[in-house]
């Protein structure tokens, strides 16, 4: 459990120039409603120019890496597809390690099904090892009913993330956590959630980068997902105030980030200053 006494918590405020690798949340940190946040482009450019390893993280499992890279490019941000990391990829990696070349019944979109296929999984409705629920805009009563029956018969219950709602221009949309709650109520079974705040997703990203927690920072805009996941994985944690959590929220939780900054623009300033001092 994360808290002020957690043995892995890093309370020392680290300068951005001291960070060897970065895990960066997407919404609220780099973009807001498909518009780039101040300093996001400069921050990413500095990381690329200095060959600093980084991954952009999202709990959304709907899209493939290529899709997300294209969406960010449309918003004015250049993030190569191999720099994206999603809850779908983390889920596929977890299942492949738990039960190699297994089978799953999936409620989700191409980001999740592609990740599972690439991990060697077979997608089936016939006695699957797992029922896997992810983000989709096409929930159907038929698929939810099938999931309820399979979980009741013994298929293991997995979900890409616990988020109950997702954002849209018209307002919140029901998301993975809301649908899994329906299946849980019908079956009495609770899913294992892979995405943030589970530190499992952070550790999978660290493995992808071949990075060490001691020299990695997690940058996020939510205390209840990004910061706690980073803390429990032993990373430096940086809360930006450009998204969901404000500075007051940072004081309400029983744990705290290593730092609180206005936006990634401040982190870019620190990196630039360090580069100037070295020349």
Give a concise summary:
This protein has helices at 40-49, 65-74, 87-98, 110-118, 141-153, 176-187, 199-209, 223-232, 247-252, 264-278; strands at residues 21-25, 31-32, 35-36, 54-58, 84-86, 103-107, 122-123, 130-133, 156-159, 165-166, 173-174, 192-193, 216-220, 236-240, 259-261.
Write a structural description.
With 279 residues, the protein is of the alpha/beta class. It folds into 2 domains: 16-59 and 196-278, HAD superfamily/HAD-like (Rossmann fold), CATH 3.40.50.1000; 99-193, 3-Layer(aba) Sandwich (Rossmann fold). 39% of the residues lie in helices and 18% in strands. The chain has 10 helices and 15 strands. It has helices at 40-49, 65-74, 87-98, 110-118, 141-153, 176-187, 199-209, 223-232, 247-252, 264-278; strands at residues 21-25, 31-32, 35-36, 54-58, 84-86, 103-107, 122-123, 130-133, 156-159, 165-166, 173-174, 192-193, 216-220, 236-240, 259-261. Helix 1 packs parallel to helix 10. The chain starts with 20 loop residues before the first strand and ends with a helix. The relative contact order is 0.18.
Look at the structure and name the CATH superfamily of the largest domain.
HAD superfamily/HAD-like
Structural class: alpha/beta
Overall form: elongated
Report the sheet-strand fraction: 15-25%
Q: Compute the number of structural domains.
A: 2
Number of DSSP strand runs: 15
Termini separation:
44 Å
Largest sheet, strands/sense/barrel: 6 strands, parallel
The CATH class of the largest domain: Alpha Beta
Mean pLDDT: 92
Q: From the 3D coordinates, which CATH architecture of the largest domain would you assign?
A: 3-Layer(aba) Sandwich
- Helicity range: 25-40%
User: What is the alpha-carbon Rg in Å?
Assistant: 19 Å
Strand order of the largest sheet: 5-4-1-13-14-15
Q: How many H/I helical runs?
A: 10
Order of helices and strands: EEEHEHEHEHEEHEEEHEHEHEHEH
Residue ranges: pLDDT <50 for 5 or more in a row? 1-10
CATH topology grouping of the largest domain: Rossmann fold
